[in-house]
Amino acid sequence: MGTHPYAIFLLKCFDPVITPKIISWICVGILFYFITKICIIYKRSPISGLLVNSLIAINAPFIIWTNSGLENPLYVLLIGILLYTSIQYTISKKSKLAIAAAIIGFLISITRPDGILFSILFPIAILTSGGKLKKIGLDILLYCSIIGFLLGVLLLFRWFYFHDVLPNTYYAKNGSVSDVINEFFRFKKAFPKKYHSIFLSMGGMDFVYIIYSFVGLIGIQLLLLRKNFKPNYLLFFVWFISFLIYILMPYDW
């Protein structure tokens, strides 16, 4: 994963191949637990969670990258926990969840810098929770203050320690601010290719048009059942943020 657990080194049981995979499996297992809890909230049945987790578990990109020993299993786990926390807020409207969400959002952003976009998920949950205007304002202020403070401390640390505010991955992938800006302005040109590549990675050329048809049917269903779409809007925003990050970031194999 992104950093090696110090405790494992103290126990002298770190293996560069086995240890990251074990930690990855633990992260994925916890992720599946939270996905099941989310499915129970929406469908009142753990069977839906089993179905969703099974579909995720047989997805090739998910299997490959969560077993790679990199940051990906931690990344998806934190996003899953943030989604669960956001859903819980819409139910209970407890302000303490804003503190938890701010810390989780911060951890997502330091796991992958582009993950900072997921930080807008909890404010969306607050704004659409149906709470009183005063409480909405206070909870958003609480959330933004905490995550802003944590990110500010991180940037200060990077500056004083590394004399830079950009993470190592920015340089490791030969990235540049101009690349991201150019990608943004080339959005219309890059969109079809990247959009197609998402579905191609899910099922390969033999199944890509079947997946297109399946997604199209889901879209039609959402249009027909748009009155019942509101309970699922946070799930939609998680998908949309992920999609937006993939489309706007420079192409990466």
In short:
The protein contains 13 helices and no strands. By secondary structure, the chain is mainly alpha-helical.
Describe the structure.
This protein is mostly helical and 253 residues long. 74% of the residues lie in helices and 0% in strands. It is built from 13 helices and no strands. The protein has helices at residues 6-10, 18-43, 46-57, 60-66, 72-92, 96-111, 121-127, 133-162, 168-172, 177-185, 187-203, 208-224, 233-248. The longest helix is centred in the middle third of the chain and has 30 residues, at 133-162. The protein is globular. The mean pLDDT is 80.
Largest pleated sheet = none
Report the radius of gyration as a whole number of Å: 20 Å
Number of helical segments?
Answer: 13
Sheet/helix structural class = mainly alpha
Give the amount of beta strand, in percent. Answer: under 5%
First-residue to last-residue Cα separation: 19 Å
Mean pLDDT, rounded to whole units?
A: 80
In N-to-C order, the SSE pattern is HHHHHHHHHHHHH
The low-confidence parts are: none
Shape assignment: globular
List keywords for this structure.
mainly alpha; globular
Produce the secondary structure layout.
Layout: H1 6-10, H2 18-43, H3 46-57, H4 60-66, H5 72-92, H6 96-111, H7 121-127, H8 133-162, H9 168-172, H10 177-185, H11 187-203, H12 208-224, H13 233-248
Helix pairs in contact: 2-3, 2-5, 5-6, 5-7, 6-8, 7-8, 11-12
